[in-house]
Design brief:
Elements: H1 7-26, H2 34-45, H3 59-76, H4 85-110, H5 117-123, H6 129-138, H7 146-168, H8 174-197, H9 203-210, H10 218-231, H11 239-256, H12 260-286, H13 289-294, H14 296-317, H15 324-335, H16 339-350, H17 356-381
Helix pairs in contact: 1-2, 1-12, 2-12, 3-10, 3-11, 3-12, 4-5, 4-7, 4-14, 5-7, 5-16, 7-11, 7-15, 8-11, 10-11, 14-15, 14-17, 15-17, 16-17
Length: 401
């Protein structure tokens, strides 16, 4: 029988999640983000090391965790930022990155170095904003002039890859994926309009407001129901549900309004408390270590390409609005990739559009970026910054209005 959860494996996964949280709390200066600890813990308990469990033992719960990754990413996305100068520059730099990635990976695919053109090219353009946010907040890098540009670059590096995944990596065909994409977008609009149908002061509005706390938790239960429904759309966790989870997060923030901080804390508790760490531990268990050991140069190549393809355009596009050191920070933040990268490779491998050895090398390179790049960003932020030159009329993107 498929989709049966092994309680022994689940206990081992929960132990890894707890241990990772304890290490982060006990060693606050540990230069390793929690997501890396979760992946490493999954490797240790997985079939290639201790063999305490198999990925299939917790796959059904990991699917829910993957949904929470994108739900929370959508919930944190502020679309208003894309109407500002920072958002427009982020969109332009990502478009250049995607063009460069397509050209470089196309050449590598033609030479037989990689077997999955689009998943690898897309993986080089992702950004680990959710992983970096705690570090950026703690170091004060989100305040002042640099903050909006970091948030915009990270938001684009999460949002646009999700859209491309939904359209081009679906197992049901590109035409069906476009129809499904339109359907999910229509559903998101309808959900947004439905909020206006719940009149303030009505009996239903009073019930929802009164049931947000204590034992009822109506809004949280509704959110979980929405996410689980999206996951259950298909027998396997297909891309439409991933996009739906992301859009559900965006719509959800509009729905809750002034109750957003309360619901956000509850989603953090359910998502980051259980399902999200479970997904990353599962991803570590699924990582193909023999493939990485057999081709370490491929991992090194992906690492260099992440910095060049994703960071290079950021340096170029922001040259008139950020000082050189700030541009280096923005480039390193943009080139740091892991959570979306893990989700992307998991989806691509399941849909048979990516070979496991390419996926393992790409995730391995993402782990290195998370280990190294944020430390360099923090080190640069602790040094004085020279003022940037004023924007000129010839800039690729105009100033905010």
């Amino acid at each position: 029988m498929e989709d049966v959860v092994s309680i022994d494996t689940l206990a081992a996964v929960a132990a890894v999640a707890l241990l990772a949280a304890l290490l982060v709390g006990l060693l606050p200066r540990l230069p390793v983000p929690q997501v890396v600890l979760l992946l490493v813990g999954g490797i240790v308990i997985g079939p290639h090391v201790l063999g305490l469990g198999a990925p299939a033992d917790v796959r059904v719960l990991a699917d829910v965790g993957l949904g929470f990754v994108f739900l929370l990413a959508g919930y944190e996305t502020d679309l208003r930022l894309f109407r500002q100068d920072a958002g427009r520059r982020a969109l332009l730099s990502w478009a250049i990155s995607f063009g460069l990635a397509a050209a470089v990976v196309g050449a590598l695919a033609a030479a037989g170095v990689v077997q999955a053109f689009l998943p690898v090219a897309l993986g080089l353009t992702t950004t680990a904003l959710g992983t970096l946010l705690p570090v950026l907040r703690e170091e004060g890098l989100l305040r002042g002039r640099l903050g909006p540009y970091l948030l915009a670059a990270g938001g684009v590096g999460e949002l646009l890859p999700v859209l491309v995944i939904a359209v081009f990596l679906g197992s049901q065909g590109r035409g069906a994926a476009l129809v499904s994409l339109s359907g999910v977008a229509t559903l998101a609009v309808l959900l947004g309009l439905l909020r206006h149908g719940v009149r303030e002061g009505s009996r239903l509005a009073d019930v929802v407001r009164a049931g947000q706390h204590e034992t009822v938790q109506i809004t949280l239960r509704g959110t979980v129901l929405l996410l689980l429904t999206l996951v259950a759309i298909t027998d396997r966790f297909h891309l439409d549900a991933v996009l739906g989870a992301f859009l559900a997060g965006i719509v959800l923030r509009r729905w809750v309004g002034t109750a957003a901080p309360e619901l956000e804390s509850k989603l953090d508790a359910v998502g980051y408390g259980f399902f999200v760490p479970l997904f990353f531990v599962y991803s570590g268990m699924s990582l193909d270590l023999p493939a990485i050991a057999a081709a370490p140069l491929l991992l090194a190549l992906f690492l260099v390409l992440m910095l060049a393809v994703r960071g290079g355009p950021v340096l170029l596009v922001h040259r008139r609005v950020l000082a050189p050191r700030e541009r280096c920070q923005a480039a390193l933040v943009s080139a740091t990739a892991l959570p979306v990268l893990v989700a992307l490779t998991e989806i691509a491998v399941r849909s048979r559009t990516m070979a496991p050895d390419d996926a393992a090398a790409l995730v391995g390179a993402g782990m290195v970026t998370v280990l190294v790049f944020p430390a360099v960003v923090v080190a640069l932020g602790r040094r004085p910054v020279q003022p940037a030159a004023a924007p000129s009329p010839g800039d690729p993107v105009g100033p905010a209005r």
